[in-house]
Amino acid sequence: xxxxxxVSLAAExxxxxxxxxxxxxxxxxxxxxxxxxxxxxxxxxxxxxxxAQFLLYSNSNGYxxxxxxxxxxxxxxxxLVNGLTDILFGSVRRTIDNLMERGxxxxxxxxxxxxxxxxxxxxxxxxxxxxxxxxxxxTIWAVVRIGVPAGALGFVYFFVFLLARILLQAGVHxxxxxxxxxxxxxxxxxxxxxxxxxxxxxxxxxxxxxxRTLFTTALPFAIACYWPAKALLxxxxxxxFTALGGTFLFVLVTVLLWKHQLKSxxxxxx
Length: 270
Fold this sequence. Notes:
mainly alpha, 270 residues, 0% strand
């Protein structure tokens, strides 16, 4: 695939995402009150995370190596990345599940775009906007209180790790699509993947050294929130870059699995 074609395909993917998101938003706005209440509920639930950390630090020493201000930053970054991935990939699971349950996956293969691109750009989850808003507000507040010891380079690393986190989530959804197309009925697979990813929702210092090493290499959960927050707090160790490498490798494997599945896919019609 030549470079102009890749650029054109990327532009089409962005256009397709916004089109699908617009259609989804228009459908949801038919019930405007429910939509607004959903945003407010998402906003409120997101605020419970920092509140829980405040109560934890008010009654204990909290997490080892993290004071209250640093943990507030960690929690805010967690909300930010979770909200962003909800906005970008919030409709992927619902889309692939519906296609397979209704026997309509074959129709996707007849579209003029790559099937994976169609799935990953199937629309956003607007309630993620409330989570992102709380995450941005919390991050700004924490940065104002703490400062950024790492300086300008810290912001560069922060955005690099943030993009890697989004890439990791894309890989998780590709893997979900792979299993769904392969077996159709993937009981509780979404809960399993969410539970596994939740290991990245806590500071790595709470885990034994074996798990800490695993989560920064083969299973790069540390990229989920730990390294984006650490990038703003101080020097980034070499293990952060092993997590980056692990993320790219994971996504590459999921794409190869998906391509293999498409080659061996047999239509429901025989």
